Amino acid sequence: MSFAEFTQITNQNAVPANTVINMTPVAPFPVGPSITFVGGNIILAPGFYDAGFHNTSDPQTDTQDSGMKLRLNGVDIEGSVITFQDSGDLPGTVAFPVAGRVVFQVTLPDSTLTLTSLGASQNVVNASLTVIQIG
């Protein structure tokens, strides 16, 4: 998916179920674009989703402003709301390993879930997520 396609998705009111969003931007990924999911329960498919916007070869250079953040109704979602296996990112970023069940459970009927880029290092890893259920 190109950056333009990624931006186009962010302008939609909702992302349909079974939508696969692949993010393969050229580094450095700019700050700003976001994807907003509008609905009740939102469950993401198991699999690999890692913002990848950090220096995996040198954890000391990793920063909390790297990667992706999830916000519910404009508020950062804490780990207690998201069930996932952390692959080593700092708090505030979202990272899933290849194996494991990945579930986002958003219970408010009028909730919006937003995935926002906070910028990237030069080590961009391809990322994708699949919305398997909304509502």
TrEMBL record:
Protein name: Exosporium leader peptide
Source organism (scientific name): Bacillus wiedmannii
